[in-house]
Design brief:
The chain has about 375 residues and is α/β, with parallel strands linked by helices. The chain is built from 14 helices and 14 strands. The structure holds NADP nicotinamide-adenine-dinucleotide phosphate (NAP).
Length: about 375
């Protein structure tokens, strides 16, 4: 199969670099266009990221030679992408919410589908927030989004906040098995790469924990309700459960967000063994259809008392698996556990690529 040419907006940043490397050998997609801020525009990609490349793996030679464009110059960008036959663009921009929203809409209006990591459109009523193992059917709102806005083949689809990734799939697996989760208390320990590059100053981070990440607790408490919600009459209705209380902390870990979670069930409560069985047997659409970015096992349970740990477990199964451990009864709610996911892969670029694989499978990227 000939690879589909794609673009990356914000290609020089932390998430952008992950897109570039994850797409190095992707069997379906190939990067043909890169854009970032006016600071990087006009430079070859290799020069734009020199001195601030963060990953062990490097970019493909053909990407190093691409000239970075100004992502704000939409008409020029769209003309260049169309010349290169780019089918869609990944958006990994870090700008103000209003600017991001307007920019992503301008690309979509000009006929370029946008698969975004930014939070700007997560609460837009006709924009799906996708985790392909959980709510692939939410993508079916896209034709209505295109009709509402008079867009041709362009549309916007987004992925949720990185901090919720480590427990959303385990939670969904339990709900799907018939165990309604009514209450959830979560404390996150979030890696510094989650703040982009250069991110939090080293003097704020070394030998320290910062008990505040702007906007994160609100996202953590609300986004799961849209993802678990339903579409009726062309709009999203949030799920009523779970009620979530979140405390989000920045910790001196490079990659990997950890979450300590307590759950309260409805009437039907699973045993510890039943929960482990539900998690280890869970598979979603990406696993059934064998999407290239899909982990074989979306939830991996570790029996050791001292796992999961970011350094040992974040790269598990292409860094796309959620690694869970320490499942035990909770003295306040019903059960508690610790979960980990790689924030810049499962929580960002890898999740975005999995969304693109889903959207291609559904015929939206042809
Ligand atoms: P980052 O490292 O700060 O990178 C930001 C990117 O946006 C760079 O390519 C930068 O270009 C570009 N940019 C900044 N200002 C711009 C402007 N005015 N016009 C055009 N481009 C501009 O941030 P990041 O961590 O990669 O995050 C990117 C997006 O993903 C954000 O929306 C973030 O919330 C989201 N996200 C991040 C993570 C994570 O773990 N880091 C997880 C989930 C979602 P220059 O290099 O030229 O400045």
């Amino acid at each position: 199969m000939a690879k589909i040419p794609v673009g990356v907006l914000g290609a020089t940043g932390m998430v952008g670099q992950n897109y570039i490397t994850l797409l190095n050998d992707h069997p379906w997609f190939k990067v043909r266009y890169v854009a970032a801020s006016p600071r990087s525009a006009g430079k070859k990609y290799a020069d734009a990221v020199a001195g601030r490349w963060q990953l062990a793996e490097t970019y493909a030679p053909h990407v190093g030679g691409l000239v970075v464009q100004d992502a704000n110059d939409v008409s020029r960008a769209v003309a260049a992408m169309k010349r290169k036959s780019c089918a869609f663009v990944f958006s990994a921009l870090e700008m103000g919410k209003d600017e991001t929203r307007a920019l992503e809409e301008a690309y979509a209006a000009a006929g370029i589908p946008v698969i975004s990591n930014a939070s700007a459109h997560r609460w837009t009523n006709d924009v799906p927030v996708l985790i392909p193992e959980i709510n692939p059917h939410h993508a079916d709102i896209i034709p209505l989004q295109q009709k509402n806005r008079g867009w041709g083949r362009g549309f916007i689809a987004v992925k949720p906040n990185c901090s919720i990734q480590s427990y959303m799939i385990p939670l969904h697996a339990l709900v799907q098995a018939g165990y309604l989760v009514k209450k959830l208390i979560v404390t996150t320990m979030q890696a510094v790469s989650g703040a982009g590059y250069p991110g939090v100053a080293s003097l704020d981070m070394i030998d320290n924990i910062v008990p505040y990440i702007g906007g994160e607790e609100e996202k953590t408490e609300n986004e799961p309700l849209k993802i678990f919600g339903a579409i009726a009459d062309g709009i999203f209705y949030n799920a009523a459960f779970p009620k979530i209380s979140a405390c989000c902390n920045r910790v001196p870990v490079i990659d990997g967000h950890t979450a300590c979670v307590s759950l309260g069930f409805g009437v039907k409560r699973p045993s510890i063994d039943e929960i482990k069985e539900v998690w280890s047997s869970f598979k979603g659409l990406p696993q059934e259809l064998n999407f290239p970015m899909a982990p074989e096992h979306p939830v991996i349970y570790r029996e050791e008392d001292n796992r999961p740990q970011p350094r040992k477990d974040r790269d598990c199964d292409k860094a796309m698996a959620v690694v869970v451990g320490r499942l035990r009864p909770c003295n306040v709610l019903d059960i508690r556990f610790t979960a980990l996911s790689h924030n810049t892969v499962r929580g960002a670029a890898g999740g975005g690529i999995l969304n693109a694989e889903l959207l291609r499978h559904k015929g939206f990227l042809n």
